[in-house]
What does this fold into?
Amino acid sequence: MLIIGSWGGGKALYRNQSSAVVLGSLIPITLNLLYTFQFLPWLRKDFTPIGFALSGFAFFVGVHRFGLLRITPIAHRLVLRDIASGVLVIDLEDNIIDCNEATEVILQVSHPRIIGTPWRENREIRQFLEGVPLRERYNFETTLFQSDGKELSLEVWVCPIQEQTGKTVGTIVTIHDITERVRLSEQWRTALVELEERNERVQDLQLTLMRQDKLATMGQLTAGMLHDLNNPLTFLQSGFLAMSRYLSELLPLVPPEALEEAERQEIEEERRIILRDFEQGFSRIRESLQSLLRLSRPLPDQEPEEADLNELIEATLELAAPALRGKLNVQKEYDRPLPRILCFPGEISNVILNLLLNALHAVEEVYRAGGAYPGSLRIETCATDRGVIRCSFRDSGPGIARELREKVFEPFFTTKETGKGTGLGLSIARDVVTRRHGGALYIEYIEPGEATTFVMELPRAAL
It folds into this structure.
């Protein structure tokens, strides 16, 4: 039954093998039946011995012409039919003598076309077997491109076929399609890299939050200290004014013979100059304290208030002056009078400070690349017909590529060296301007290589 099944449903080679076996078996039986039952009246002699001779010839043809005894038995297809891996059998002359259905699917070859042909004549097989030692155990991974352009990842195992005597009679090549496994492995590696990156970001965020917590604590302490400094500052200013007033009152009491009029006028002029300088100094200290208080003032329970954006910029420039001095020349073009905005002054001052420091870092980058100090920063303010107050900051730095215009506002994105920035400054600044104030913060693009222009737009206060 196996032989008949192989003849009816097998490949051409197996049908030839089965035909040789069936023919060799039926010849002597047929001749013996014809002689015994006299189906042919003219057949008076028993040709059964001749039938056995013809049967032997049929077996001889099956052995030498169709490799009946050198390859897998006829029943092999019942075993290999459902194997997902491809199986390719090659003899010592490098001819392909067998393959299963999976091989045809993977290599996109036709069984009748390749059986009995050298494997080097087949392009698909030559792709991965060229240069592979077929007389020893060997395994490797390779890539195969099918005729439709599809790329397959294959794992190939080469195993010599040996007789009981140890003589090698051929080679079995097993082909495993590992495309899906490779794809999942790549996804796993990519996911692992992303996980490591996210883990680093989480660690950076933890450090940032720790720093922010410390800064928040320091800010609260600083706010208290700044508030406490107002009292002694007021005391000093009052004391100095009183002393100056007493001096002006004592001066007329000096006898004329003890102090000439010219000396008296000179002392009075010096007193006025000293008084003016001290008043300017006290005023500058008070303004600096107010700017620091505005930046460090806690947000809970704080109500928005009307403010002049020009004044906020000036106060922040005053605060940042020590850092900018000698590195950045600030050119100001203010629209005056500028309509007021309704805002949280401390938050907007923080945004302005962030933009100033970004401009400073851009100029420092140019300097490290061989440029010279000072760089330039142009600040412009104006009222638009859209009911918003527009403020632009244009620096002389190297510029930001067009494709990075939005990325710079993403959390943790930074172009600075490791340890030089957290990538949170612009993200927080945009959140403050857009979410807290209903405004906009964006980069105005001009041309590649041009300086960066940050634009902040804030709604004007109701008239």
About this structure: The chain has four domains: 2-64, 82-177, 191-298, 305-459. Residues 305-459 form a domain with the Heat Shock Protein 90 fold (CATH 3.30.565.10).
